[in-house]
Amino acid sequence: MDLPLVYHPEYSAPMASTHRFPMAKFRLLKNLLLRDGAIVESQFFCPELTPWDWIERIHTPDYVDAYRFGTLDAKAQRRIGLPWSEAIARRTRIAVGGTVLTARLALEHGLCCNLAGGTHHAFPEYGSGFCIFNDIAVTARLLLDEGAVQKILIVDLDVHQGDGTAWIFQDEPRVFTFSMHCGANFPLRKQTSDLDVPLEIGTEDEGYLRTLDSYLEDLLSQVKPDLVLYDAGVDPHRGDRLGKLAMTDTGLFQREMQVLGTCVGAGYPVACVIGGGYSTNMDTLVHRHSLVHRAAAQIWRLHRL
User: Fold this and answer.
1) What is the pLDDT, as a whole number, of residue 305?
2) Taking Cα atoms as reference points, which of 202, 209, 201, 301 lies closest to residue 255?
3) Local structure of 270: helix, strand or coil
4) End-to-end CA distance of the chain
5) In this structure, which topology does domain 5-12+21-303 adopt according to CATH?
6) Which member of 6, 74, 239, 266 has the greatest number of CB atoms within 10 A?
7) What number is the average pLDDT over the span 300-304?
């Protein structure tokens, strides 16, 4: 079979968008990959509506119910950065299930990519930074509870620290959180990951990739994960509105090849989510998000998964 990918039509269901979080990018990402021949329609798996009890393994029932029924107060909605609507609530619920399905397929086939996901700023009692429910954390907790895995490594390369994920798993020895991010960026108050690597403003491709290389192989050898959950945020790009780093498209693609090649080459299955990316030019943003899928396709063929 070909590289499995996870996508649901409601990722791009009509709903309110902001200039920083355009919902249309999910549909445009799928269409770009199809148009370029990077993927074919038969590669897609469609997630089902996520059971609420899965989400409540991480998030408090009061918060889940408030979001579920639209009773979240205005301050809490401002903290998230997205207005509440039934469409957004439903899409968010499906997106969590998309990451769960991505992880299950990665365990089965060695590698799988979600065309959404990466909402790492969500905490148990509230959402933040355009993140409502923490799909990465829900997925990790569910797989551990089911006994599908015993050890998980979260590789978070979004430009912003994965603060919600770090806080959630601070006392969970079976989950190792690794966040390499711009040190002088959101969130203002950082949490403590198992390994945090803050980068200087303006870090370019060479410095970024060299730093990543100095950690990744050792982490795999140390943690020996049953699964790697990879947040491939593209906001380290020099053209990102919220990034403050200076990577290029070439550097981002090299990063994806480096992460996926190192993990898969060493025998560790990888589930990818797209993470953050913020640009006024939708075409360039969607192209950046496509890089992890293009790299995954190459790694899939190279290792004959």
Assistant:
1) 72
2) 209
3) strand
4) 8
5) Arginase; Chain A (3.40.800)
6) 6
7) 91
Domain boundaries, the chain: 5-12+21-303
The answer on pLDDT for 157 being more than 80 is: yes
Q: Give 132-144 pLDDT, tens digit per residue.
A: 999 999 999 999 9
Instruction: Please give the Cα distance from 267 to 13 (Å, whole number).
Output: 37
Nearest to 49 by CA among 101, 111, 1, 106: 101
List strands edge to edge, sheet with 227-231: 44-45, 5-6, 111-114, 270-273, 227-231, 152-156, 175-182, 195-199
Q: What per-residue confidence (pLDDT) applies to 52?
A: 96
pLDDT at residue 198 greater than cutoff 80: yes
Phi, psi torsion values for 128, nearest 5 degrees? -165, 150
Q: Around Cβ 91, how many Cβ atoms within 10 Å?
A: 22
CB 273, CB 289: distance < 8 Å: no
Cis peptide before 124 (omega within 30 of 0): no
The stretches of the chain forming alpha helices (DSSP H) are: 25-35, 52-55, 61-68, 74-80, 86-109, 135-146, 163-168, 205-223, 249-265, 282-303
User: How buried is 273 (Cβ within 10 angstroms: 0-12 exposed, 13-18 middle, 19+ buried)?
Assistant: buried
Note the residue count of the chain: 305
**Cα torsion 192, 82, 273, 275: sign:** negative
Q: What is the residue-wise DSSP string for 67-92?
A: HHTT---HHHHHHHTS---HHHHHHH
C-beta neighbour count of 224 within 10 angstroms:
14
- Asked whether 63 and 125 are in contact (CB, 8 A), the reply is yes
The pLDDT, as a whole number, for residue 83 is 87
Residue 19: pLDDT band (50, 70, 90) is very low
**Per-residue confidence at 15, pLDDT binned at 50, 70, 90?**
very low
Average pLDDT over residues 31-51: 94
Of the candidates 156, 166, 183, the residue with the CA atom closest to the CA atom of residue 243: 183
Q: What is the pLDDT of residue 129?
A: 95
Rounded mean pLDDT of 226-254? Answer: 97
